From TrEMBL:
InterPro entries assigned to the protein according to its UniProt record, in alphabetical order: DUF34/NIF3_sf, N-reg_PII/ATP_PRibTrfase_C
Domain of life, source organism: Bacteria
Native organism: Cellvibrio japonicus (strain Ueda107) (Pseudomonas fluorescens subsp. cellulosa)
Name listed for the protein in its UniProt record: NGG1p interacting factor NIF3
PANTHER family cross-referenced by the UniProt entry: NGG1P INTERACTING FACTOR NIF3 (PTHR41774:SF1), PTHR41774
Transmembrane domains' residue ranges: none
Length: 104
């Protein structure tokens, strides 16, 4: 089991979640589309040669984003990450994948 965490602007929140859920993430027992989300503020500065969805090269940007967390079975984590990358508007989306240990 894995935990997938990603950051996404509110404009694409539902579309990215839908893509990742469709890939099999967010299932807990007999429940689907399970996640935790919280608003926050993202920050980045596009470097020369980048093609930012938002902002301008060499200018610091601060924008409202959501942090979304969900679990994902081993069998679908790769598909979930691919779906995340394809649905996300950013050239380089920020995300984490953590392996969870079964203690019980």
């Amino acid at each position: 089991m894995y935990k997938l965490v990603f950051f996404v602007p509110e404009t694409h929140l539902d579309a990215v979640k839908a893509a990742v859920f469709a890939a099999g993430a967010g299932r807990i027992g007999k429940y689907a589309e399970c996640c935790w989300q919280v608003p926050g503020q993202g920050q980045f500065r596009p470097l020369p040669g980048s093609q930012p969805f938002l902002g301008c090269e060499n200018q610091l940007e601060q924008i409202p984003e959501f942090r979304v967390e969900m679990v994902c079975e081993d069998a679908c984590i790769r598909a979930a990450v691919i779906a995340l990358r394809e649905a996300h508007p950013y050239e380089e989306p920020a995300f984490d994948v953590w392996r969870l240990e079964d203690l019980f």
